[in-house]
């Protein structure tokens, strides 16, 4: 069976072995974050749509689970903002009928100010929203939201969702060097986190080539120091680069290296050429970057990958 809506399972630092379910077309999002590993948003929107039939999505998940072994989580995530899928509540309900495997939703949290979006996520076992800035100026700089979104609307949505949601709420805070990885900015974030009251605060930084070159990673020791200021339940999830390396090469590694030897390619081209999802391709590319087998270069705002030692 050829899968169009699911990918993996892939290893997730936050969720273990995760079966990804992608509910929106590639790079359809409410944000255009400067650190996004999938590149710039090509369709920035607030319009919620039923992009794909619910039955088609559930059929693929059922087939994948039947093929085994079971993942730790079924994760609604992928290559855009999953809450833009207007039938996400029906997908969650269908998954809950199908299996006891917990359902997680990876979201930027931007649409939680809408009552129908909050309602749609109530049956998920874990919801993992983001908070990348403590004020409107940095929100606009880091997340580059749709013009109709504003910072206070977004954080109030997170607070309201926590009040209504009875599952596990794990808040991701993405810190960037020279931008939000500053004590004064961390204090602003901590103030909002105290109001949101997440069960976990997961602190992250750039580990894969970002959409913009000026999105800088934070060294791990500094990340840990700043995380302590976000709350007692804050943990650092960004690993050393070496920690992402698989000891065993993945089946399509040689195929990818052969392609790169001929010409530099983008992440989307890698995914299409190997028949895998862009989010899965990003994880695989990171393994090769970490081992030094390939490198990334940016040209005209686009990230290309090529063999180490070769110039573009």
What report would you give on this structure?
This protein is an alpha/beta fold and about 300 residues long. It has two domains: about 5-240, Alpha-Beta Barrel (TIM Barrel), CATH 3.20.20.70; about 240-310, Winged helix-like DNA-binding domain superfamily/Winged helix DNA-binding domain (Arc Repressor Mutant, subunit A), CATH 1.10.10. The chain is built from ten helices and twelve strands. It has helices at about 55-65, 90-100, 115-120, 135-140, 150-165, 185-195, 220-225, 255-260, 265-275, 280-290; strands spanning about 5-10, 15-20, 30, 45, 75, 105, 125-130, 170-175, 200-205, 235, 295-300, 300-305. The strands form three sheets. The chain has an eight-stranded mixed sheet with strand order 1-2-5-6-7-8-9-10, with helices on both faces. α3 (about 115-120) links the parallel β6 (about 105) and β7. α9 (about 265-275) packs across α10 (about 280-290). The protein is globular, with a radius of gyration of 19 Å.
């Amino acid at each position: 069976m050829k899968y169009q809506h699911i990918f993996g399972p892939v290893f997730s630092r936050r969720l273990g072995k995760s079966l990804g379910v992608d509910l929106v077309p590639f790079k359809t999002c409410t944000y255009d974050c400067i650190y996004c590993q999938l590149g710039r948003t090509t369709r920035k929107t607030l319009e919620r749509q039923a992009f794909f039939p619910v039955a088609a999505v559930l059929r693929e998940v059922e087939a994948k689970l039947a093929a085994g072994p079971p993942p730790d989580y079924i994760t609604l995530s992928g290559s855009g903002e999953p809450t833009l899928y207007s039938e996400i509540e029906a997908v969650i309900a269908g998954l809950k009928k199908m299996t006891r495997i917990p359902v997680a939703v990876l979201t930027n949290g931007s649409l939680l100010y809408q009552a129908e979006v909050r309602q749609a996520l109530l049956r998920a076992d874990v919801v993992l929203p983001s908070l990348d800035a403590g004020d409107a100026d940095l929100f606009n700089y880091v997340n580059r939201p749709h013009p109709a979104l504003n910072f206070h609307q977004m954080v109030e949505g997170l607070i309201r969702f926590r009040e209504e949601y009875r599952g596990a709420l794990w808040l991701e805070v993405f810190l960037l060097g020279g931008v939000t990885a500053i004590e004064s900015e961390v204090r602003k974030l901590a103030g909002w986190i105290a109001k949101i009251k997440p069960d976990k605060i997961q602190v992250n930084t750039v580990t894969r080539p970002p959409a913009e070159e000026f999105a800088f990673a934070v060294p791990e020791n500094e990340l840990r120091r700043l995380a302590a200021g976000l709350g007692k339940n804050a943990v650092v999830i960004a690993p050393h680069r070496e920690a992402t390396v698989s000891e065993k090469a993945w089946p399509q590694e040689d195929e990818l290296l052969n392609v790169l030897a001929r010409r530099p390619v983008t992440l989307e081209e890698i995914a299409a050429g190997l028949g895998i999802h862009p989010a899965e391709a990003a994880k695989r590319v990171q393994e090769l970057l970490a081992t030094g087998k390939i490198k990334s270069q940016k040209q005209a705002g686009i990230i290309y990958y090529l063999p180490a030692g070769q110039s573009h």
